[in-house]
Amino acid sequence: MPGARRLDLLDEDAYHPFLADPALLAEELRTIPEGGWVVLDEVQRLPALLNTVHRFIEERQARFALCGSSARKLKREGTNLLAGRALRLEMLQFLPEELGPDFSLEAALAHGSLPVIWTSPSRREALAAYARMYLREEIQAEAAVRSLPGFARFLPIAALFHAQVLNASSLARDAGVSRTTLLGYLEVLEDTLVAFRLPAFEARLRVCERKHPKLYLFDVGVVRALKGHLSDRPAPKEKGALFEGWVASLLRAYGHHRGLFEDWAYWAPAESRTTEVDSLLRRGREFLAVEAKVGRAPTGDDLAGLRAIRDLKGLVRRVLVCTAERARKTEDGIDVLPAARFAELLRAGRLWP
Known about the structure:
By secondary structure, the protein is α/β, with parallel strands linked by helices. It folds into 2 domains: about 5-75; about 95-350, no CATH class. The protein is built from 15 helices and 12 strands. The chain has helices at about 10-20, 25-30, 50-60, 70-75, 95-100, 105-110, 115-120, 125-140, 150-160, 170-175, 180-190, 220-225, 235-260, 300-310, 340-350; strands spanning about 5-10, 35-40, 65, 165, 195-200, 215, 265, 275-285, 285-290, 315-320, 330, 335-340. The protein starts with a strand and ends in a 5-residue tail after the last helix.
């Protein structure tokens, strides 16, 4: 935004005057031409400023880019959230199309795709620092939890549940906390945009669907950092969950920014503990099923979920994303796509048939 006025509340020299007198923002904004742009960064540090933002949108048609890393403080303080006058966009990790020839799936699975990590001269050190900063700046600074040591012990356990169906009682036992405390911790992860829960698909089918959601951390590099796994090559046993999480992050990004789908869930029949489909996307009355598996030669077990879901009404395509070198179609109509080809179809808007 060339010519925009930028106010960074992470800068203590800017933060403290507004903290002492929020009315100073109005004086600052009066110097900006009508219809001009203002970037207000780390707005969650001073939610009271949003009342002035609201007024200048109404009275002077000012345009704002309001940036922040957590919605928790805004919600907790009953902040003016601009009542439909603002669009919410999430700044997610780099996509393969943004990195172009610099993209490497191996590097993305090892260190994730966050801009601050990808551009660092030492991605391992940057990831370790990111995990420490998250605890210090997001959790401790906002007093988001009563026990910071307890939350710190919970984080690596949550990372172990990445890309798994989430049973809150089981996770609470593993973390050594009550179920109520555990649910509060999960809410903190979501409010600080570090994790999201993917619900189970529910429909009037002949079988009952599971009700527990799946848990995903927003970036696979952060998953590894929280577990203390910072090697340049993920271990084979890590790759399955990391690859599934990476595919989920692509779907989330294209769903958020380009309207790839209207609704998103995972699918699993109740009578099976092993059969599932990672992602079931809905657009109108049509469904698209996506499964992610590491491997160059998918097996029958890899395709089991996509075969089990084939009778779902409205299902128009079944896709297995893998690390094979070339695309092909199985005899029963499943598209087997290399990760690079899958990313190309997302970029071109041609994943749906």
